[in-house]
Amino acid sequence: METRRIFLLPNQPLPCIAKEGGAIWKSMTESEKAPYFAKAARKKAEYEIAVKQHIDNLNETAMEISASSSMNTHEDVEQEVSS
């Protein structure tokens, strides 16, 4: 993309780069912006799946820890009773 070359020029302060990027974005038509919106939607869906998987993994780990500590408690009680 040609506009990337503008942003890769050395010695341009960040505010100038941001201003130029904003001007380019505002000048684009909806059809020119469509690929970026589509990519953002895909990335958002990937993110939501990743977050759900992470939460599921946390819940599984918590359940394993809970079950493990529960089993240890039952074993401790059984040892005390048999003593």
How would you describe this structure to a colleague?
- The chain is an all-alpha fold.
- The protein is 89% helix and 0% strand.
- It has 3 helices and no strands.
- The chain has helices spanning 2-8, 14-27, 30-82.
- The radius of gyration is 27 Å and the shape is elongated.
- The N and C termini lie far apart (78 Å).
- The mean pLDDT is 82.
Shape: elongated
Distance between the termini: 78 Å
Distinct helical segment count = 3
Please identify the structural class as seen in this structure.
mainly alpha
Q: Whole-number radius of gyration?
A: 27 Å
Mean pLDDT: 82
Order of helical and strand elements: HHH
The percentage of residues in β strands lies in under 5%
Helix content: over 70%
List low-pLDDT spans: none
The largest sheet is:
none
- Report the count of strand segments: 0
Set out the fold topology.
Blueprint: H1 2-8, H2 14-27, H3 30-82
Quick recap:
By secondary structure, the chain is mainly alpha-helical. The chain has 3 helices and no strands.
